[in-house]
Write a structure and sequence with these properties.
The chain is built from 5 helices and no strands. The chain has 107 residues and is mainly alpha-helical. The model has no long low-confidence stretch (mean pLDDT 83).
Amino acid sequence: LITIALGFLFSLLNGLIRDTANILSLGLTFLLFLSPIFYPMPSSKAFILMNKFNAPGILVTSIRDLLLAGNISHPVLFTVACAFSILVFMASWTIFHLVEPIIAEKI
C-alpha cells in the first residue's frame, strides 16, 4: 500500500515537475542500499535507529523473516509499518482525487 500511495503522490508531482522521474530513480537506488534487503539487520545503534524509521525496510525484512524462518523478528515494528502504510495510502488517495482535476487542467 505504501508503494501505491507514493505512486499517487509522485504522479501528481510529475505532472508539475517533469524531472521527478530522474530524482525518484536516484532516491530509490539510495533507499535500496539503506534498506536491509540484501543484508541482515545491522546491530550497531545508529543503524538500528535508522532502520526503525524505514517503513519499506521493515516490511521487506519482516516478510523475508516470515518466509525463511517462519516467524516475524520484529512484530511491533511490522504492525506499526503496516498501520503507517495504510494511513499514508488513505491520505494520498484523498489528495490524488482532490488535486487530479487541477493538475489535468495545467497539462
